[in-house]
Design brief:
mainly alpha, single chain, two-stranded antiparallel sheet, 26 helices
């Protein structure tokens, strides 16, 4: 269940992650601290900063040496609620004083490993703590982060270079709990020491049952990206025996969460997709993972032969996973292909047809938004499918009689946002739908959040996401979470949200 929970978080499957968390708690076997860690990781994805800081176990967590992901989530939430962001050097003194009196003592979470954090707000708190402690070692470690503020860290480092004190408050006011940074890129899991993606897959091939190493984000964020060893990693995955499939697919969440948009490990994604097909795993959570992997594969602009082979393989299994009950996931997958790079047009059209034709025959069971999306996708690949039904006129009349709604839709997937805008303009022309893919908060995004009656959030690919900023900035808006990150998932959430705010 823990593996499924990680995968649900990686896919942005909000409902599935909530259900799994309840099942994990009911099953038992985890300490209160570990259950709290899962709560915080999920709330962080949802942007629920206030819930994180109000967690009943937070005062214990800050002294428990939690996983880095949990420390990052707590520090980022605290920064967005308590600090005037973005920080500037003239406000560091005020920020240090806020950190020094924080209750619980969130400075206990600051250590050099935070250089691996992706949340600039968490790095901002760590930088303030480095200033308060006059901790040049911590400052140098944090300076390695891509999202660190060199101006703030320079207060410590310039003081060290000049042999001068840079103290703003007594360093004793902010305890120094910095630990030694992680040793290179080596991670210890139980008695197994793993050093890279390639090492992990090699261990899967050689490990006996019961001794298979598992992965999570806490492990892999210290490793070189999968894209740097993509070809070798894919070859190793393809050569794994069937008995290793369970352990292999348990690491898919980590692959998805560490995906680099600029440098996709597309061969690795293809190899993992093949294991999903061979093992015939097509539960909704699995389909969400397959959609994410397919997006990575297509983003790598594979050669025509690889493109054709992958789509043909997926199509050959389509009868096992295309159904009305999985319509959102199916449309997400079809849209990824329709909007992606085109290999052989005929193969692309045949693949989309294999997914859309069964849904078209049962279109009366789909919501209006999903039917509109199906129509757009079919049009992109020149499929002559009419998605209208007789009840559509009555549905449109009912929606037109309500008041106009201000909507903000947020996702890091700009392609999906473009689909949402196009579909919303047809389905809900009286509503004003704004979209954003900003990676950090800014005044314009804050204003959009405050003005919105409805906010729709996609939580997949939370790296650099501004979900916390949006939820903290929202006034009285109803917040709806997409149960996935594709265009169909976003539209279904938008549709549900409009019903809720219009009730």
């Amino acid at each position: 269940m823990l593996r499924e929970f990680d995968l649900a978080l990686a896919n942005g499957a909000v409902e599935a992650s909530a259900k799994l968390l309840k099942e994990i708690e009911a099953t038992g076997g985890l300490s209160h601290e570990n259950l709290a860690y899962l709560d915080i990781r999920r709330w962080s994805r949802l942007g629920l900063d206030a819930s994180i800081l109000n967690h009943k176990s937070l005062s214990t967590i800050v002294y428990s040496e939690p996983p880095l992901l949990v420390s990052e989530a707590v520090l980022g939430a605290w920064a967005r609620i308590n600090l005037d962001l973005p920080l500037s050097s003239d406000r560091v003194g005020e920020s240090v004083r806020k950190v020094s009196v924080a209750n619980p003592d969130i400075a206990m979470l600051v250590e050099p490993r935070l250089k691996y954090a992706s949340d600039p707000d968490a790095i901002a708190v760590a930088s303030v703590v480095a200033v308060a402690r006059e901790d040049a070692h911590l400052a140098r470690q944090l300076a390695e982060s891509e999202v660190a503020d060199s101006e703030i860290l320079g207060i410590v480092l310039s003081g060290e270079d000049n042999g001068k004190s840079s103290t703003i408050v007594s360093a004793a006011e902010v305890p120094n709990t910095s630990q030694s940074p992680a040793a290179g890129d080596t991670t210890v899991l139980g008695e197994v020491t793993l050093t890279s993606w390639v090492d992990w897959v090699a261990r899967l091939a050689s490990s006996s049952e019961g001794q298979v190493p598992t992965l999570d984000l806490e492990t892999v964020q210290f490793w070189a990206p999968a894209a740097t060893v993509d070809r070798q990693l894919a070859e190793q995955i393809d050569s794994l025996p069937a008995m290793a499939t369970d352990a292999l697919l348990s690491g898919v969440a980590a692959i998805i969460d560490t995906d680099d948009v600029r440098q996709p490990a597309w061969r690795t994604a293809a190899a993992l997709l093949r294991h999903y097909l061979i093992s015939e795993r097509f539960a909704p959570n699995d389909l969400g993972a397959m959609c994410s992997l397919l997006a990575i594969f297509l983003r790598g602009s594979p050669a025509a032969a690889a493109y054709d082979e992958m789509l043909n393989d997926l199509r050959s299994y389509a009868t096992q996973w295309v159904a009305a009950s999985t319509a959102e996931r199916v449309l997400d997958i079809a849209d990824v292909v329709a909007c992606g790079p085109i290999g052989e047009p005929g193969v692309r059209q045949s693949f989309v047809a294999a997914l859309l034709s069964p849904l078209h025959s049962m279109r009366h069971r789909l919501s209006p938004a999903l039917r509109h999306l199906g129509s757009l996708i079919a049009g992109d690949v020149d499929l002559p499918l009419d998605w209208d039904i007789k009840e559509e006129v009555a549905e449109k009349t009912a929606m037109s009689e309500r008041s106009a709604v201000e909507v903000l839709v947020y996702s890091l997937d700009e392609r999906s946002l473009a689909r949402v805008v196009k579909t919303a303009a047809q389905q809900w022309p009286s509503d004003r739908v704004r979209v954003s893919s900003d990676k950090v908060g800014n005044p314009a995004l804050r204003q959009h959040a405050r003005n919105a009656d409805l906010i729709v959030l996609a939580t997949r690919r939370a790296t650099h996401a501004a979900t916390g900023f949006i939820t903290d900035s929202a006034d009285s808006a109803h917040i709806e979470y997409a149960d996935g990150a594709g265009s169909a998932s976003l539209l279904r959430a938008l549709e549900s949200g409009l019903v809720a705010v219009s009730a």
